[in-house]
Amino acid sequence: AWIDLRAYGHADPAAVALRQGRVRVAAGHDYQPGLEGHIRLNIATSPERLSEIIHRLATALTPDAS
After folding, report:
1. CB-CB contact of 65 with 20 (8 Å)
2. pLDDT score, position 63
3. DSSP letters of 12-66?
4. What does the angle CA 21 – CA 22 – CA 24 come to, to the nearest 5 degrees?
5. Tens-digit pLDDT profile for residues 15-54
6. Torsion sign across C-alpha atoms 14, 46, 54, 43
7. Are 63 and 52 in contact (CB under 8 A)?
8. Would strands 38-40 and 26-27 be described as parallel, antiparallel, or unpaired?
9. Rounded distance, CA 45 to CA 36, Å?
10. Both ends of the chain: CA-CA distance in Å?
11. What is the pTM of this model?
């Protein structure tokens, strides 16, 4: 899934996700020019794991997490 995270204001949300949330996702700009601020998330996993990933992403990207 491609997720647009530009509204969070991070230049590289994939780096923030890894550093702050311990979630490894792919940076959009690695796949196509113009996808800065996007991430690619593989959703082919268990519902429990996907829920944990989303929770960690949300926590990592909020201003209080910085």
Report:
1. yes
2. 78
3. -HHHHHHHHH----EEGGGTSTT-TTEEE----S-HHHHHHHHHHHHHHHSGGG-
4. 110
5. 999 999 999 999 999 999 989 999 999 999 999 999 999 9
6. positive
7. no
8. antiparallel
9. 25
10. 25
11. 0.84
